[in-house]
## 1
Amino acid sequence: MHELSVCQALLTQVENLARERNASQVLSVSLGIGPLSGVEPALLSQAWPLAAAGTVADNAELLIEERPVRVRCSQCGEESDATANRLLCARCGDWRTQLLSGDDLLLLQVELETAYV
Amino acid sequence: MCDTCGCNVTHGNRHLLAPGGKLQKTASGGEAFTVLKNLLSENDHIAAHNREHFDRHQVLAINLMSSPGAGKTALLEATIDALGDRYRLAVIEGDLETENDAQRIRARGIDAVQITTGSACHLDAHMVHDAVHQLDLAQLDILFIENVGNLVCPASFDLGQHRNVTLLSVPEGDDKPAKYPVIFRAADAVAITKVDLLPLLDDFQVQRASGHVRALASSAPLLELSTRRDGGIDSWLAWLDGELAAYRTHCARGATLRPRIQPEGARLHGLAP
């Protein structure tokens, strides 16, 4: 259950951002997460309220965009969808592919309520 | 935004940051700020710091990951017996509780720092940083970091290591790379341990394990190891020799080595190839 550790790291970033912008509260936090990041979105969603309780992000909604697993074949050049444990080219079946997306673990956007709104 | 260098502002997202971009009021009355930063960027920052420490003293740092009981400590014991005269070695041990593994290493006359994580299921760069400062890096050639036995969480945290090795012991079954793709995809070498049990556990097919690893688009070598046979870890020792030589070549050019698979944060910061 390393999702709580990830949540605490996320919260530190969000709190820093809120402080820099003089925000009175954080309204939402948007993440992009792929299955090959090793972080489970459902567990992250459960851990978030625990981590955020009593902070400026107490009421913030956690929005998670699940990123697809996509690969580019180094042999035939095809770009195709794949799954976490099968990163093969969908056209020629070769295993020598490069990951285009799917290992994302990104803080995309934070929505803040600031004093100047 | 990246606090340090702004390197994550690209052609693709620059417009979001410009006035009139996403810096405007949202439906719920707030202001949206585009961040595009790795969730673990603080960990990655400390990991880079650890790597600088290692490189300053040309210490090759190898992170060993596996499920509990796959034979990480036994492999280290055998490695110390085989290489202790040729290289200066040390070990950082990660476990939830006990000094048992560090004591096994120290019994062979090698420095070992035990990190007891309490309830944490993985090592992170901060823990390794504290442990590194208990070692004299100037007196080392190779530092092994034995991660907490766990096939899930350790894969997500960069420690500053140069290479990842994931162990798969024969009793665990040959389909573990398909079940735990993140940690096996992260491996620069996959060590199949306890191969002396293959005659007893004939449902484990090395070829099948290899197929599962290749399906992760990984070219990592599969090293078949037994610490109970003479010459049983020779392929591992040869791999270590090769990696240490490659690392020293890189250091001589002022460069470093990184695990083949980089977490998202490293890629954003332009560190990965």
Note: Chain A has a mean pLDDT of 94.
## 2
Amino acid sequence: MIIKGGIVYDPTNGIFGEEMDIFLEKGKVVEEAKGKEIDARGLLVMPGGVDAHAHVAGTKVNTGRIMRPEDARSGLEPKTKLLRPCTGYTVPNCYAIGYRYARMGYTTVFEAATPIIESRHTHEELEEIPIVDKGALTLFGSNWEVLECVRDDDLDKLAAYVAWGLRASRGYGVKVVNPGGGEAWGFGTNVKGLDDPVPNFDTTPREIIRGLVKANEMLNLPHSVHLHTNNLGKPGNYTTVLDTMDTVKDITSTRDRQVLHVTHMQFSSYGGTGWRDFESEAPQIAEYFNRNDHVTMDMGQMIFGNATTMTADGPLEYNNARLLHAKWSNHDIELEDSSGVVPLVYGRKMPVNAIQWAIGLELALLTESPWKTLLTTDHPNGGPFVNYPEVITLLMSKAKREEEMATLHELVAKRTVLPTIERELDWGDIAVMTRAAPAKVLGLAEKGHLGVGADADVTVYDLRPEKIDPARDHKRVKEALGRVKYTIKGGEVVVRDGEIVAVPRGRTYWVDASVPEKDAERVQVDLVEKFEKYYSIQKSNYMVQDAYVTDPVVVKAGVI
Amino acid sequence: MREITIVPLQEFEVPLEAENIRPDIFATLSLEEIRDLEVWEGNRRRYLSDLFSVAGNDGTGECLIRLDGDFSRVKRIGEGMREGEILVRGNIGMRAGSGMRGGSINIEGDAGDWLGREMRGGSISVKGNAGNYVGSRYWGERCGMRGGEIEIEGSAGAYLGDHICGGQIKVKGDAGDFPGASNRGGAITIGGDAHLPGAEMVSGTIVVKGRARVLPSYGFQETAEIEGQLLWKFVGDLVEKGKGELYVALVEDDGQLDK
């Protein structure tokens, strides 16, 4: 297949808006190929989109669906000869997730958090999400075995357990949510800072983060530790984040990537001492990123309207439910973590929500390098992923930002610096934030670019970058971003003129990391005891079998 | 006012979905166009004229729809209507007048479940009985009915005015279990008996002129006279720190209620 004459943005290979042909063969980008031609003359062409953080599969997503029958009243699309029926907005059904990503030109999605014990369910749902390639990050931040290894300062055993946990969950990377807090929540408390001890374990969040980051690098994993910070969602939490990022500064990454990814930063960039004097500290965070290269973040942009918050941060969801008098699900995940789900509505006239909205944009606009700020909404916590076109146009158009700000609570002008920001991102920046950077941050060598050997995932937008000014024609741009001209996945046209035309199965990435046998054996001794004494299921039933990952891409890693 | 009469051509075995039977949709259409409106019979798409005889004035303008016959298997009549009138000489099916914002629906027979669900304005009257979930919300929503009036001469089923946030419901007969649950500002009057009214009520009023079992999370305040009848007045639901008012004529007492 040949994609002819597109205006190509491929930041990984230093291509920013050059007219060129792209050749695809056997699911890969190649030097030269024959076959079907796709006329992309003058149209915007990018690699397929990569979402590095979204909650799209697993028990908490399903809990959201169960708690929100009303959500399934929206987003209804009847079945067709090709497509299964779709429902939902914040918690869509599996098919809708795949179709909607494809229609926006996304071809890869990573589920942001799965406890090992719930991973079979996560994979059952991932299997049902069509078209896109996917993977899942495994939760380790409040896991008993992790806490014990960190307490005993036994990094070899910790690395061996992480390797085993990734295999057991068929997971791709190490996710850490409010480290120690998930365990503390089992006793109705939380950890309030990096040095607050975890109940019954003689360790602290700082030690957990450092331990897991070191283990992650020992194992040479493709992705870094993926962290949801302590104190997330609380006024004044930006100091915790700055401290967290500093605490891993001395650890060197064993790969060409960050040593820590701090996720949905919008929820961690808050100033003030309470909700009354709540304000943005995004400039401080952005400045840290401008001075340091060892960390990356994603926006976690907030979208007005309905959202369903879901996280392994159990105490956070308790606070949300109390504050908003909303529906609340609370879940204890045995030895591994806690979690909660709370639906909520972000209102334009609510001062806190208006400021949150501005913070996400400030982070992306004040951080100079787009390689450090991935575009996400923390779907569906900040808002559903279908709003990415909205976020992109906000970043590209000051006029649009001003239009939006005029509809918000006036405190947005006093408690944030957004109104003073002139910067408007260009297509190169957007291609980085939605493709090149997420792939690099995740360590996916064959995603997010169009160099020879890359996966044949390509997006062709119905936009002429040389003729349209996104700063002015943001309405037209948003529309085109939501309904792409073509999405090509693995060399196959899956979307044409905004309609799905083929529904291939996506593949699932997971990481198989090797560790020295003696460490693996020491972990097994611990696990036998834990399963006998504490777990509700047998160890033999614990591991996700290959039958649950029918199209795997196994990435090898391990102790060097 | 322009009048259109619709009569079923047969007894329906499979339920129909007929959200197009709506005066404000009819108002802009000729008789021929009305006959061509879409109706779903189970999973089969039909035209209105396949299943009903449609007669009346041609031309356009504000519309009175007469439904003559048994419509108890026809769902979603008058859904979302904003103006005009529907007169039903017979029974009507589920979800009649749900989400309606204006106009009126008058039913001479019985109404099915979900009558006036999430309605915001207009009025509905029923000569017979109504089913469950009158003026309620869809599962999971925060608000049921927000405005308008529903009057039922007979009795209503369970979950009358569930999550009601505004508007008025009057039932002359009995109501089933849990009327006015999570009331947040609506007014419900029940002429007969009810069971456990006002669970999780935050504000609004519920009047039960017959017998009712009152939840233990209600606090007795005083006696009050409403329309010449002496009633017990309670405030609650205290579980929600609610300030809703509950009036009951005869309190079913299992000996635990302290009043």
Note: Chain B has two domains: 1-109, 154-259.
